[in-house]
Amino acid sequence: MVMEEQWKLVYVLGILVLGFAQQWKAVESNAQASVSCGFPAVYNFGDSNSDTGGISATLNEILPPNGETFFGHPAGRASDGRLILDFIGKSESLKLPYLSAYLDSIGTNFRHGANFATGGSSIRPPGFSPFNLGIQISQFIQFKARTTTLYNQLSLNRRIPLSISNIPRPAEFSQALYTFDIGQNDLGHGFQTMSENQVLDSIPHIIGELAKAIHQLYKEGARFFWIHNTGPLGCLPYNVIYGKKAGNLDKNGCVKSQNEAAMVFNRQLKDKISWLRTQLPFAKFTYVDVYSAKYALISNAKNLGFVDPLNFCCGSFYGYHINCGKKAVVNGTVYGNPCEHPSKHVSWDGIHYSEAANMWVWDRILGGSLCDPPVSIQDACHHQINR
């Protein structure tokens, strides 16, 4: 009888200990999650969806009326204003300056990060730009090595502290957030040069090259990754105009085959990120479903106060191909004048989104409901959240 009572006591104590342990774990988890990550810097890799001046400074100058809505002048962005990346940096939890393009030598400030994205870039060559992801990663590695050496040299000379005011602090490379928005041009270039089946067959290798790039950054000390999937390629007005065929459009007028390829790409990207979590134990990955946000905007554009999402504001592809920022007079008709209300358009120039659209998409992903794990950007550094 005594033995039985002792076993009951041990059982009850065991339950109590387990309960206290679970409660403490929950309290510890909540406490850690409540502390903002406060990333000191952002390093971005991508294409024109996040290019803040790289391609404009090197190959193709971004002309007016780009930038007219927010900056009041061309600001290196293929949009009338800010990009999703701009909203990330300016979010309540980060409050960082707009990222300077690594390739832009005028007025740059790299104290809180750098942007290696360039318009037309793809994960793997060939593509629309020579600055593929492999080149961008090489640029970052060189940037990190050179700025670290420079910082260490200049910090020894206390007479010139201002000389290091615009370069990153070496210790902050491992604390920074590394963001990706790339892959759209791999698919876009593929559809222009290959069959649909060949495009689909190429996706595993494209995703594999992205994983290699992340491995390289991890070796350089990167730990926190925020990775956008690719958007609905078939809903870009440019692709609808040049890629539509009989029976190949969905209910929103988008090219089905291109959107299906984008979804295949995104599924494989998400799977690869899950695999990377097992390979890089100290890394924290957030997969961001930008596709769903953008497609929701396109599907409900008119109810949200936008015009037909397949219309665009700047340039022309109807009969005469006029890029945004240029004009042409054909038979007395002027082509290329921008629309009067860019904020009513989802698409700015037929390929890139307007500031209003970018802001709407950012508002959808801000809280983390479209992320895996479902965390906001301010919680993207916590261990237990993304396990």
UniProtKB/TrEMBL annotation:
Protein name per its UniProtKB record: Uncharacterized protein
InterPro entries referenced in this protein's UniProt entry, alphabetically: GDSL, SGNH_hydro_sf, SGNH_plant_lipase-like
Top-rank taxon: Eukaryota
Lineage: Eukaryota, Viridiplantae, Streptophyta, Embryophyta, Tracheophyta
Family, similarity comment: Belongs to the 'GDSL' lipolytic enzyme family.
PANTHER family reported for this sequence: GDSL-LIKE LIPASE_ACYLHYDROLASE, ZINC FINGER FYVE DOMAIN CONTAINING PROTEIN
Entry-linked CDD domains: SGNH_plant_lipase_like
Record keywords: Glycoprotein, Hydrolase, Signal
Signal peptide (from-to): 1-26
